[in-house]
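yo

u said u wanted the structure for the complex thing, so here. seqs first:
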Amino acid sequence: MQEKKRNLVVYFQLGFVPLFLLFLALFGWFEKFFGWKDGPLGLHYGIWFMCYFSYLILLISAVAFFIVREKSESKEG
Amino acid sequence: METQFQASPIYSIVLFLYFAVVIGIGIYFSKRVGSDEDYYLAGRGLNAPVTGFSFSVTQMSAGSLVGMIGVLGTIGYNYLPVCIASAAAPWAAFIIIGERIRRISEKVGALTYGEIFERRFGPSVKLLYGIAVIVFIIPLITGQIQASGNILQVVLGVPYVYGMIITTVIIVIYVTLSGMFGVAWSDFIQGVIMCVGVLIMTPAVVSSAGGFSQGLVSLKAIDPRLIKLTGFVTGTWVFCNVVTWSLFQIGGNPHSMFRFLIPKNMRTLRRAMLWALACNVIIFFSLSFVGPFSRVLLPDLEKRDLTMPILATRVLPPFIGSLLLSAVIAAIMSTVDSILLLVSSAATRDVYPVLSKSKADPKKQLALSRYVTIIVSALGFLGAVRPLDLVQWLVALAFQLLASTLVIPIILTCWWPRFNKTGALAGMLGGAITAIIWFIVGWVQYGSLSQWPGGWWPAVLGVAVSAVFAIAGTLLTEPPPEKVVQEFYS
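structre next:
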């Protein structure tokens, strides 16, 4: 069970990479075919995402992975 | 803003202080190197922050602090995906192979990736790995040494060759004296300098550009494409860049991946990778501001590679500015020292034992490692003596060839029990040959080593073909012996 849980966390993490690429593709596609409305401060929403949220998501996902792994290991002794 | 670099004695003083500290580290740790395990893995006794920072700054080179800011200034936010991809690289590599490769190396008692390949597939794969690393990675050293010559020429006002001699000699001293101890601890200090430097520089640059909002307005006025995600580049270009500089670090940066084998246990490795990620996020997040906004401050700068040195001296107090200039040299040195250790280990532990069919005793092996370190740095230096424009493309070529050769075999070794020797050899050769052919096709069609048909990078095709060959080669031949599978996966 613990091994399954551990693997789930790995798969979630692996999922981050294609998800990130998907976001990139979507933003590129929206920009190309629909044009973008400017976001706050005149910067495109896609840039805001790239600039701030992706770093944040990366950090949160890494810390979550770390906590789950540490907990599962301490339970196993 | 003035676009000429003004040399000042404070820059020289701080730089030489930094050099003295790095040499001091080498001398201090030299007594702790008693075996080649100490030399290559620091006796597996480094703590998490040192290992993490070492991983992070090894991945970053002159290309990150100098080249990336230059490109961000040229194409603005179009280059941002590459920043986030580079920031994510250590964590992506750790998730995909880090824990597994660490566990395997402990189980089979291997100190290098070559030795892991040997235990799994036999000496032929180890030999191929060793040769690929030695042949493909030397241009990376050449490119870095050349960059150090250029920067010291600008900052200290010394001739280009003297700049390269200073850097090379200092690196050789601390690497040969203290091996991974000196490399990792100097990397740690270099990482701290880089983080502090960019953290101070970022608000100074944004503020000099009139604030964040005004800076964006100014960027848009220069060229509206600067604040878009695409415009200067195509989707294919973005995709290839993101995949190459994040996932392909696994094979393209074997000197960073070496760090997975260093920590004393898994918990230390995990903590180390959080430190690595934090360091990466700090630096690349900061560059995401400094790069585009440098275009506002230095719109007419022709050589955009000089952005960092010029900004450091224009927007920061002299002492802080000189620390940041030291950080640029630190980025170069932290990459070269790790490559030297990697090539040395590939030569003495992977290639030499297979070709000589014997194993040197530990003392001889350690002496051999030091000689190889000196020889390889001399080769890198000689390659950089005559600066060629070609060198920067050789660096990209080296990274892509390594990635094409090693990414898939390393990943499958970690995750696929069925993966066998035929698959490993087919994957390595298939990836390398595909990338070489694609480089040649690009050269024939465009006369360039950085343009390819359809915009598809050689590393992307190389890794794809490597995967097909590795899987087909494995499935069409006998599975590996059960004993080997048990040893790796039990």
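The longest helix of chain A spans residues 2-33. Chain A has a mean pLDDT of 63.
cya
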